[in-house]
Structures
1.
Amino acid sequence: MPSKEIPDYFPLDWRFGTDGIRGSVETYMNPLFLVKLGWAAGKIFKETGLGNSVLIGKDTRISGYMIESALESGFISA
C-alpha cells in the first residue's frame, strides 16, 4: 500500500516485534488506536480459533496502564 493511503493515525515508525509494540505514547499510541488494535487482534484470534485468553505484558511506566486498559477494551469488544 502506498504511504499516501495509510491513515494518519497509523505511524510509519512503529516496531512490532518479539518485545511488543514500540512507539511514542504522546503522539500516535493513543487509547483510540490501541482499542482498535485490540479489537482487530481479537477478531483474528476468534476467527482462527486461537482461544479466548490473551496475556498482556507491560512494564511499570504510567503509560502501561493506559495501554493495558485500551487493549483490554478492544479485546472485549471483539
2.
Amino acid sequence: MKKFTTIDGKTNLVLVGMPGAGKSTIGVLLAKKLAMDFVDTDLLIQVQYGDALQEIMNTKGYLELRKIEESVICDINYL
C-alpha cells in the first residue's frame, strides 16, 4: 500500500499486487474503515471500454492495456 497526497490535498491509498491477490477485497474493507471512497481501476477500465480486461488484452495487447490503465489511473485525481 502506498499513500499519495494530490495537489488539492486529497489523500489516496493505492493497492498494488498480482491479479487475484485480494486488492479489491482489502480495498473495500480499508475504505470503509477509513471512511474513504473506493475506486477499482479494473472496473473503470471495463466500464469505459465495455469489455472484460482479458478481452481487452486479447484484442489490443498487453502493452495497450497497460497504457489504458495508466490513463485511467491519471484521470482518478479528477473524480
3.
Amino acid sequence: MIWNTDYDFPLKDNEAYIELYKLLKVINLVESGSIAKQVISDGMVLVDGKVEYKKRKKVRSGQVVEFNKKTIMVQSDFV
C-alpha cells in the first residue's frame, strides 16, 4: 500500500520505536500527553489502517499512524 503522508517522523539513531501517545504529542497533533491518551482510548487513532487502543503501542520504522485526517510515516535508518 502506498501512503500519502502529511508528516515524516524520523526516529533518532538509537531508537527502534516511539510510543504512540508520544508521537501524537511530538508532532503537535494534540496539546498534551493526556489528550493523546484519551483520543487513543476513544479509538480515534489508526496504526497501519487499523484502530489502535494501546496508548504505549511501539510504533516502528515503516509504520503509518493516522489521526484527525493527518497521516504520519515513521522512518529510521536504525536496523
